[in-house]
Amino acid sequence: MAKQTFTSEIRTHDAAWLQAEITKRYESLRTLRFDIGFGNLNSLSQFRVAKKELAQLWTVLGEKMAQSDEVTAR
Predict the structure, then answer these.
(1) CA torsion through residues 68, 54, 20, 6, sign
(2) What is the pLDDT of residue 48?
(3) Do residues 18 and 58 touch, judged by C-beta distance below 8 A?
(4) CB of 36 within 8 A of CB of 47?
(5) What is the average per-residue pLDDT within 12-30?
(6) Domain boundaries, the chain
């Protein structure tokens, strides 16, 4: 069985969950930024992955919002 990707996993959730997850991810990104500043983070890969996943969350949320606008406009 194929491994489910992060994007395909988050597409199954509704807009409210996505907004809550975006808020959580911003907090974790903020913590990672402080860790980088204080020298507590050895590798930037964790920071890059967090930024990438946050962008994917925003993209999926935008798609869902556009999709709901199309449905209500009809």
Answers:
(1) positive
(2) 96
(3) no
(4) yes
(5) 96
(6) 13-73
Residue whose pair of structure tokens reads 């709901």 in the numeric block: 68
- In sequence order, which residues have a C-beta less than 8 Å from that of residue 62 and are 6 or more positions away? none
Residue, of 48 and 68, whose pLDDT is higher: 48
70: confidence class by pLDDT, cuts 50, 70, 90: confident
- Cβ pair 6, 51 in contact under 8 A: no
- Token pair, residue 39, equals 């020298």
Which amino acid would we find at residue 21? E
Print the SS3 string covering the chain: CCCCCHHHHHCCCCHHHHHHHHHHHHHHHHHHHHHHHHCCCCCCHHHHHHHHHHHHHHHHHHHHHHHHHHHHHC
